[in-house]
Automatic annotation (TrEMBL):
Domain 4Fe-4S ferredoxin-type, chain residue ranges per copy: 154-176
Range of residues in the leader sequence: none
Family classification: Belongs to the succinate dehydrogenase/fumarate reductase iron-sulfur protein family.
Cross-referenced SUPFAM superfamilies: 2Fe-2S ferredoxin-like, alpha-helical ferredoxin
InterPro entries: 2Fe-2S_ferredoxin-like_sf (IPR036010), 2Fe-2S_ferredoxin-type (IPR001041), 4Fe4S_Fe-S-bd (IPR017896), 4Fe4S_Fe_S_CS (IPR017900), Beta-grasp_dom_sf (IPR012675), Helical_ferredxn (IPR009051), SDH/FRD_Iron-Sulfur (IPR050573), Succ_DH/fum_Rdtase_Fe-S (IPR004489)
Protein name: succinate dehydrogenase
MF terms (GO), sorted A to Z: 2 iron, 2 sulfur cluster binding; 3 iron, 4 sulfur cluster binding; 4 iron, 4 sulfur cluster binding; electron transfer activity; metal ion binding; succinate dehydrogenase (quinone) activity
Enzyme nomenclature, EC number: 1.3.5.1
Length: 252
């Protein structure tokens, strides 16, 4: 049993404690097969360390073959999304002290996407859906000579969905996505929402037609997994419902 934070020894004024990191390993072979297993690592950590810090300790000091994605380490790039203790989270935002250090901390790749190696998944299916909803401003007419203005109320209409960092936490937490790889998924719908309700955009009808596909917005079962998984606090399920409503009323 690992020590609790309260009982932990201190280095200077900062308490340290021991945790067990249990990491899912997926090691592909040349013949197309893969060795899938769990490896455990004992680490001496601080309460303010994050899961990303623990993964760095393993890779730098114990097993250099451990493979995972990370970039900014500040919850902005979204590259280190993974399942931590059975929940989708960003490793760079999850403090070890907020987990139960007396039990092994499990880390595994997000679900629903092909695993390339260890904690790294193939994001191409995710980004293919994102590209399909045309995530860019669509306008007609001559190029403007000044910026396109919006009121604060117009901006507020889609402000929440501008926060998406494309980490795939919401999409890979969706049971429909797990069982149906053709489903657009919450992240694609959220990014469509961002433009459908933008007063400057003229491509809303096109996006709604794309999402009206059998693998589009109607596949959502409103389980709220996506909203709970979003590290940016986006009301994902609400955005999906607003897109459904716009599909019916054609008011956006």
């Amino acid at each position: 049993m690992s020590a609790t934070i309260e009982d932990a020894p201190k280095v200077g004024s900062v308490p340290t404690f021991t945790v067990t990191l249990r990491v899912a390993r997926h090691l592909p072979a040349d013949d197309g097969t893969a060795d899938t297993r769990w490896d455990e690592f004992q680490l001496q950590v601080h309460g303010t360390d994050r899961v990303l810090d623990a993964l760095h300790m393993v890779k730098w000091d114990q097993d250099g073959s451990l493979t995972f994605r990370r970039s900014c380490a500040h919850g902005i790039c979204g590259s280190d999304a993974m399942r931590i203790n059975g929940r989708n989270r960003l490793a760079c935002k999850t403090l070890l002290k907020d987990l139960d250090p007396s039990k092994p901390i499990t880390v595994e790749p997000i679900k629903g996407l092909p695993v390339i190696k260890d904690l790294v998944v193939d994001m191409e299916p995710f980004f293919a859906s994102y590209r399909e909803i045309m995530p860019f401003l669509i306008t007609t007419g001559n190029e403007p000579t000044k910026e396109r203005l919006q009121s604060a109320e117009q901006r507020a209409r889609f402000d929440d969905t501008t926060k998406c960092i494309l980490c795939a936490s919401c999409t890979s937490s969706c049971p429909v996505f797990w069982t149906d790889g053709q489903y657009f998924g919450p992240a694609a719908i959220v990014n469509a929402h961002r433009f459908i309700f933008d007063s400057r955009d003229e491509g809303g009808a096109q996006r709604l037609e794309i999402l009206n596909d059998k693998e589009g917005v109607w596949r959502c079962r409103t389980t709220f997994n996506c909203t709970e998984a979003c590290p940016r606090g986006i009301e994902v399920t609400k955005a999906i419902q607003e897109v459904k409503r716009a599909m019916i009323t054609r008011a956006f």
